[in-house]
Design goal:
alpha/beta; Rossmann fold; 2 domains; 5-stranded parallel beta sheet
Length: about 240
């Protein structure tokens, strides 16, 4: 049974969502503060999170970011806020979807199912490729690429990259454990960046570490091979 965590302080809406989703066959837990939401995230371990942006104890965008830091569960923001800027801020904070109130319960169910299905497919795809070490052990090792959309994700969160940074990560992910010299990386990028140099490669690597490593000064994924170059491995 898929589990839904509702973080909503409006009792009427919260009770309505809880009743409807329970009748639809979900296991539902509802809280009305951000603090309780973080606690239930650990205890309840939901498959999807419904998050209101207006809460009594914390800004919804800030909470969305905190939830994304510690969980891979899809986050669907459900809010009265309808401005484009609110949607953008929520998505940049780690939300996967945005639904403005009032909304159709059937549409909400469809979005929940779509997000859970997408997450299951991502898990299976990454497990098949061997990119996922152990999701229940640590989300820190979840690094994936979407070549068609030229998108990099860390902990299920979109990471903005430059063209050259993405090309380096694409090369790394396709050949985990392979040691690349700076010259090899330069040659790989030269078709796109005619001005790339050894120094430019070092800058790209430093920037990538800032974006994907928990501690860029002690990298786990992009390792320096002294006197040679760099290698990448999520293991």
């Amino acid at each position: 049974m898929d589990k839904v965590l509702i973080i909503e302080d409006d009792n009427m809406i919260g009770e309505m969502l809880t009743m409807y989703l329970s009748e639809e066959g979900y296991a539902v837990k509802r809280v009305d503060t951000g603090l309780d939401g973080m606690l239930e995230l650990e205890l309840f371990r939901p498959d999807v999170i419904l998050l209101d942006l207006v809460l009594p104890d914390i800004n919804g965008i800030e909470l969305c970011s905190k939830l994304r830091e510690v969980s891979l569960a899809p986050i669907i923001v459900v809010s009265l806020k309808m401005e484009v800027a609110d949607r953008i801020n929520a998505l940049q904070a780690g939300a996967d979807d945005f639904l403005s109130k009032p909304f159709s319960m059937r549409e909400l169910t469809a979005r929940i199912n779509a997000n859970i299905r997408r997450m299951h497919l991502l898990e299976q795809s990454m497990a098949d490729r061997g990119d996922l070490r152990n999701m229940t052990d640590s989300v820190e090792s979840l690094i994936s690429l979407d070549p068609e959309r030229r998108s990099l994700y860390v902990n299920h969160r979109y990471i903005e990259t430059t063209f050259s940074e993405f090309e380096i990560m694409k090369l790394f992910c396709a050949n985990q454990g392979k040691v690349y010299t700076r010259e090899e990386l330069i040659n790989a990028l030269r078709g796109f960046d005619s001005f790339v140099t050894d120094r430019a490669i070092d800058v790209h690597i430093a920037n990538l570490r800032k974006k994907i490593e928990g501690n860029p000064k002690e990298p786990r994924f992009i390792k320096t091979v002294w006197g040679v170059g760099y290698k990448f491995n999520v293991e």
